[in-house]
Specification:
Elements lengths: L1 H5 L17 E9 L18 E6 L7 H15 L4
């Protein structure tokens, strides 16, 4: 902010909706099925439950901010930023 004031640059604060949902997962993650979701398969055998495998980040994961920052910093480097 100091640099912006010294150089009289305009300050812009963008708000990117759903930014954390754009991160890619680099490890295998599973979660319980959401409440209200009814799968189109028969009920699992007794003592077992159905889960789904995640391919993208979702909110409330510990990894979500790290995964988003990784994707964001890679994009900046691709454009030549240091």
């Amino acid at each position: 902010m100091v640099l912006a004031v010294v150089h009289k640059w305009p300050l812009i604060q963008p708000n990117v909706n759903n930014a954390f949902l754009n991160g890619d997962l680099f490890e295998e993650m599973h979660m319980d099925l959401p409440l209200g979701y009814s799968p189109k398969v028969d009920a699992p055998p007794k003592g077992e439950c159905l889960v789904c495998q995640l391919h993208k980040s979702i909110y409330r994961l510990k990894q979500v901010s790290r995964q988003w920052f990784s994707k964001f910093s890679y994009a900046l480097i691709e454009y030549g930023f240091l």
